[in-house]
Design goal:
mainly beta; eight-stranded antiparallel sheet; 546 residues
């Protein structure tokens, strides 16, 4: 869509998009000036990686088959994070066409060395492992440089102080795997300039902490040199309830590495989820040392609303790291749980970003900027620009024949659901010309798990608002209403999340909300039911069958 004049009446226009968070845990929570709350980046922002460059901190996350890829954030204080863009913001950098929503970009790692920023990453279902670079994290990053001789997933870089560069990654073990989930951490010296391994690859962790116990999915390796020793920490146990972070130590990057006898250094798998602020699945950590000699870790976790289901996906949390006298890092010990608030880092406090990244907040995007804000996301890579923000502040979305349940790039622009209790609303102007021309709001978890609150024309040419539920291979219309009199073609649409229940409303004028369906099963928007690795994204959608 190139300009407003080309928009047709079958293309919807959205005047605003309003998000309201209302989680019970935050409603009466008192947070002091010297405290912060977890998670620091709520909603579907998993697999965090962090780096410090001087007094600046940068954080990246997995984005799977969403576009743009790899959201990147900047902070001065580790708790207030401003999104400064995406690492992969050009179609040439990110080809995820035809992939499932939980394929694509897995577990990016960010590093900084001698003035250059590096992100090393995997496209699952795509080209494998690659590196992109920049000297300005808020600017343009390079096109991918595909790595030679580095398979598997979760690659990371380690720059040793003798000038040697190493790449670590998760891959199959040597020989045949001994059990389901048997993986290994590999390392090899790597010449980035020649894009070739500079030595033989070697397994430095086989299986995990204790292979006799058949540990699963050792992954997400990070290497650091602390007090002259090489510290290797990794995720172990899979991304579900058994997730954890474990640590090893050695005198040489190529090994051998010895696991700590107090592993894991981070997990919640041994603690009952029946507590006020349950944070589960914790792991996939990265650590950073501040300019004030404090150590902190960011890691993923989930916040179930009923003990097992969570629609906000895997989120990013922050905790301090302490070191033992014999140089082992510790995060949580014994029955310690992830706190909802604690004392903030010893760093100058920054302003809270707009919109905020956590807690309860209300924010409205009036589309008063000519470009979409960085928090908006699309499903897979757009090959044409099918959206436009008009001069009078309307987001126009072209009705196209890419369906929300397909493997293409549908006309969908969404924002992550960041609270279990949340409300999303919008004002839409839309005059469907033909049957099969649809526009509205979608709460999207995956190709086969979503709710569509749509407006269309029925067989008789009447305007109709309806709710479609998709659960697995079954799609059904669970509610509908014929709209008798709406000459201005203005619709107000609202989706309200209440943990496991979702309510759907519409109106023909502002503040005149009518319930279409209340108490819909929201658990189908949890990865516990839907599978995969993403969280719910709620956004605006347009489709035509013609």
């Amino acid at each position: 869509m190139s300009d407003q004049s080309e928009a047709t009446v079958s293309d919807p226009q959205f005047d605003w998009y309003k998000y309201e968070g209302n989680d019970p845990i935050y409603r009466d929570l008192s947070v002091g000036q010297d405290e912060y709350i977890n998670p620091i980046n709520s909603g579907f922002y998993p697999d965090p990686s962090i780096i410090r460059a001087g007094d600046d901190y940068y954080m990246v996350h997995s984005s799977f088959s969403y576009y743009p890829g790899i959201p990147i954030f900047h902070s001065k204080d580790l708790i207030n994070w401003e999104q400064i863009g995406h690492v992969l913001n050009r179609p040439s950098q990110l080809q995820v066409d035809g992939l499932g929503i939980s394929e694509g970009i897995f577990a990016p790692t960010i590093e900084y060395h001698e003035g250059t920023f590096y992100v090393v990453n995997t496209i699952v279902g795509g080209g494998g492992n690659f590196i992109v670079t920049t000297d300005d994290p808020a600017g343009e990053w390079s096109d991918p440089m595909w790595l030679n001789g580095v398979g598997g997933i979760d690659p990371s870089l380690f720059f040793d102080d003798d000038g040697t560069t190493y790449i670590l990654n998760n891959d199959a073990p040597e020989g045949e795997p001994l059990y389901q989930g048997h993986r290994a951490i590999w390392i090899r010296p790597y010449d980035l300039e020649a894009n070739q391994p500079a030595g033989e690859a070697k397994v430095i962790v086989n299986g995990g902490v204790d292979i006799s116990e058949q540990p699963i999915w050792i992954e997400g390796p990070h290497m650091m040199k602390v007090n002259g020793e090489y510290i290797l920490h990794n995720a172990e146990g899979g991304t579900g309830p058994q997730h954890s972070q474990v640590v090893f130590k050695g005198d040489d990057p190529m090994g051998p590495f010895t696991p700590w006898d107090q592993n894991p250094i981070l997990t919640q798998r041994h603690i009952s989820p029946n507590r006020e602020f349950p944070v589960e699945y914790v792991g996939h950590a990265d650590m950073v040392k501040t300019q004030n000699d404090e150590w902190w870790t960011i890691f993923l976790g989930v916040r179930p609303y009923d003990g097992s289901n969570f629609n906000t996906g895997r989120e990013t949390f922050l905790l301090p790291v302490t070191w033992t006298e014999d140089n082992w890092p510790t995060i949580l010990e014994g029955d310690e749980t992830v706190p909802v608030k604690l004392e903030r880092p010893d760093l100058p406090l920054s302003e809270e970003p707009v919109p905020p990244n956590n807690g309860n907040f209300t924010y409205t995007d009036d589309f008063d900027s000519p470009e979409l804000a960085d928090y908006w996301t699309m499903i897979r890579t757009p090959q044409s620009e099918w959206w436009n923000i008009s001069e009078d502040g309307q987001l126009e979305i072209e009705s196209r024949s890419e369906i929300i349940s397909g493997r293409g790039n549908p006309s969908f622009i969404g924002k992550r659901q960041k609270n279990a209790y949340a409300t999303v609303s919008t004002k839409m102007t839309f005059d469907p010309e033909v049957e099969g021309n649809v526009a509205g709001l979608v709460a999207f978890q995956g190709e086969n798990y979503y709710y569509l609150l749509g407006v269309t024309a029925n067989e008789g040419g009447q305007k109709e608002i309806y709710l479609e539920k998709s659960e697995g291979n079954q799609k059904e219309i669970i509610a509908s209403e014929v709209i008798e009199d709406n000459p201005d073609n203005e619709y107000y649409l609202k989706i309200q999340a209440r943990g496991a229940d979702y309510d759907f409303f519409y109106g023909l004028s502002e503040d005149d909300w009518q319930p279409l369906f209340q108490g819909a099963d929201g658990t189908i928007l949890s990865t516990t039911k839907a599978g995969g690795f993403v969280g719910t994204v709620i956004g605006m959608y347009a489709y035509t069958s013609e």
